Please model this.
Amino acid sequence: MRDFLPAEKARRERILATIRAVYRRHGFDEIETPVAEDSDRLHAGLGGDNEKLAFAILKRGLTTDDFGQAQTALDLADLGLRFDLTVPLARFYASHRAELPSVFRAIQIAPVWRAERPQKGRYRQFVQCDIDILGEPDVRAEAELLTASLDALDALGLEGGFIRVNDRRLLLGMLSSLGFAPEESDGVLITIDKLDKVGHDGVVAELRERGVTPSAVDALAAFFRRPQTLEFLPFGEAAIRKALPEGVDEQAVADLVAIGEAVSAARALDPGTAVLQFDPFLVRGMGYYTGPIFELAHPSVDYSLGGGGRYDGMIGRFLGSDVPATGFSLGFERLVELVDLPAAEEADAIALLHDKDVPLTSLLTLKSELIATGARVRLQTKPKNTKAVLAALEGEGFTAFGFVDAATTLASLSLRSLGESPQS
Model:
């Protein structure tokens, strides 16, 4: 968990404001949910491995007997800090469905917490930027999400981004055609999800160690060796069919083709850019995905900048009836490392360097009069040597300064641009 000094905080807020503005233009509305959720909800099997990283909040009034009788640490907790924004959104929608439109487009931009082992790029508190569409079963929802996310990337100055796309139905169909038993699918997908880290041979070796169906592992190894398996063609039906075994889910293929056509049409201003890429081995770690899944990539880095997918079954766990849902999350902390937005044009920022004997009423009156003109104003006691103070103020974004004594009024105040050499 990190502190942010003013300059970095301002930079992060500029990036967040840019993302918010793009999403608002795409018709999404921002909501806010509590940082804590019921422990049972956070550990309901919806969060995958992230559930293991959730921070628990102990029940109030625990006794020594409670600790002695607890079978697990979670027996002592009734709340926990949210580890993502999707589980809270599902609970939010279940609680407020009657007050929301039939198709609800949500923005959530907020911190989440995971008990990670801290390292570069992984923090225990970090910001997620999510957009979700609830109540829309058609893939027009996915097309909207992908278009909005690519537009956000462009607005941040990261043109050239693209999205890898797959579908959980195609993944499960591929495993079935290769001979894996249905009960083996979840474990096999967890191993395939490591493909970019351990390679084809590593995936095959791990599957053999796990003791899954040997003939299916042999078939997967042969499938990996096909020349066309990793030959990425322009996104479309031909690319999807060429990358998969025979007998794929026809509806899943049709859905991906429709998404591709819609996103390409929306991005017609740059028709030569391949913004979607079919990746037959894209898994995404969360087991709640039920349809199309995607990951945001950029040629400047070798890691994803976000991702998401369709999770039609999650809200029904809270509501009792299924609600179609799909979402996309930008990896804000990774984006911050890449984005260099220029500082926004702001009103004059003025520092008033005042003598110690200037009455407080005079100082606040002068400050208020300047603020009324639209300026940002800071009061600063005048030191004997002003050079270091003025340099620091300039570094913080102040543009002008003035010296103030007991007789100074708004009419008599003389302002000078920061950067001029003041008299000491």
The chain has a mean pLDDT of 87. Residues 170 and 249 are 6 Å apart (CA to CA). The chain has two domains: 6-338, 349-417. The longest strand covers residues 104-113.
